[in-house]
UniProtKB/TrEMBL annotation:
Residues 38-142 form the Non-haem dioxygenase N-terminal domain. Pfam families: 2OG-FeII_Oxy, DIOX_N. Residues 222-290 form the Isopenicillin N synthase-like Fe(2+) 2OG dioxygenase domain. It comes from the Eukaryota. PANTHER family: 2-OXOGLUTARATE (2OG) AND FE(II)-DEPENDENT OXYGENASE SUPERFAMILY PROTEIN-RELATED. InterPro entries: DIOX_N, IPNS-like_FE2OG_OXY, IPNS-like_sf, Iron_ascorbate_oxido_reductase. Belongs to the iron/ascorbate-dependent oxidoreductase family. This is Gibberellin 2-oxidase.
Length: 377
């Protein structure tokens, strides 16, 4: 089904101004921070560097599910420029933002996500707005673009590709080494030019009162996991992201200067039969000294595409650990593609006007004979 497009977009020859955005001051509150491994990607091309980084990453992906990368080769000025474009977009009139809305009925997440859904019977709406931008590949050449995206497409699309090339690609190499697969196994499966719903996301958590936060979190507070393969969160200093540690404790994720917070998604958990952890996380009210600040986000999501069959990968490590059985290897029945998997997940979570708790505590649904577990409030 074609993406939804709203006609009558106001036209003007004047470019939308993009004012420089800067990170707010970090919180001064004493928070419980999660201890995350730091992966220095400047060592990736050194002799033996990939193998050493893979060893460092092993515990992070199999126990915590979150880690930080530094020295990525991305210029922070380019990162701040993307924050600035996102900030300018969210200040546009609602009519402009609604030009290309997400088509959740079909599980399509490209476009604008409006903060329109209500949270149960709390009388509080979700405070999240997001703009999800596709990669520049022939398959998506006819997708519409918001005006600010069209005006800045050259630098947005280049940043989009640079993130994959400088960070995501290298992470897939390290994870393949961990799994004792050929180094290019996951990079080829997730190749940038292949059809997938990879997206660069501008995201905004609008300001709430403490009372509104209390009502919202009183209804939904158990967190969620990500649908895709790998997620990247660029540092922006407003605290609020928490992960649930293996001990069951909620701890904050600390912004790292020059660093990018990464986490594994449900796709990698599924492909490795649970070895790689897709950790439950959530966003809570900012600390008191930041609660008045809107939390602007810049994220990148790598997602499995048409060429990925959702089945356990043929990893020698998984076989030794008993996570790859003969039944797994011999199975030749139908399996969903990565795109089908992601879009089913998006539709299940987002195609609704009111977010309610699942009836009877249900936490799974069926897709082509597979049971898809859902970690969401």
């Amino acid at each position: 089904m074609a993406p939804i497009i709203i006609d009558n977009l106001p036209g003007t020859a004047i470019k939308i101004p993009v004012k420089p955005w800067s990170r707010p001051e970090p919180t001064r509150e004493d928070l419980k921070w999660a201890p995350l491994a730091t992966i220095d990607l400047s060592r990736f091309d050194e002799p033996g560097g990939k193998q050493q980084l893979a060893q460092q990453l092993y515990d992070a992906v199999t126990k915590i599910g979150f880690w930080v990368v530094v020295n990525t080769g991305l210029d922070d000025a380019d990162v701040l420029r993307q924050f600035s474009i996102g900030n300018a977009f969210f200040k546009e009139p609602l009519e402009e933002k609604r030009f290309f809305p997400c088509n959740f009925a079909e599980g399509e997440y490209f476009g604008y996500r409006e903060n329109a859904a209500w949270i149960g019977d709390t009388g509080v709406k979700q405070n999240i707005e997001a703009l999800n931008i596709h990669k520049e590949i022939p398959a998506w050449s006819n997708l519409p673009k918001h005006r600010i995206v069209k005006e800045n497409w050259e630098e947005i699309s280049q940043f989009h590709r640079n993130v994959w090339e400088k960070i995501t690609r290298k992470l897939f190499v390290l994870i393949a080494i961990i799994l004792e697969l050929p180094e290019n196994y996951l990079t080829e499966a997730h190749a940038y030019d292949k059809v997938s719903d990879d997206q660069l996301r501008y995201m905004l958590y609008n300001v709430r009162t403490q009372e509104e936060w209390d009502k919202a979190l009183g209804y939904f507070n158990s967190g969620h996991t990500d649908f895709g393969s790998v997620s990247l969160l660029f540092s922006q200093n407003v605290a609020g992201l928490q992960i649930r540690t293996p001990e069951g404790e909620w701890k904050y994720v600390k912004p790292v200067e020059g660093g990018i917070v990464c986490n594994a998604g449900d796709t990698l958990t599924f492909l490795t039969n649970g070895l790689i952890k897709s950790t439950i996380h959530r966003v809570v009210a900012p600390p008191k000294d930041q609660i008045h600040i809107a939390r602007l986000g810049l994220l990148y999501f790598s997602r499995p595409g048409d060429d990925i069959a959702m089945r356990t990968v043929p990893s020698p490590l998984l076989q030794r650990l008993g996570l790859l059985t003969e039944e797994d290897k011999q199975y030749n029945g139908p399996v969903p593609s990565g795109t089908e998997w992601v879009r089913a997940r998006v539709k299940d979570v987002h195609n609704k006007n009111v977010w309610t708790k699942r009836e009877g505590g249900a936490n799974s649904f069926q897709l082509k004979g597979l049971e898809i577990k859902v970690e969401h409030a």
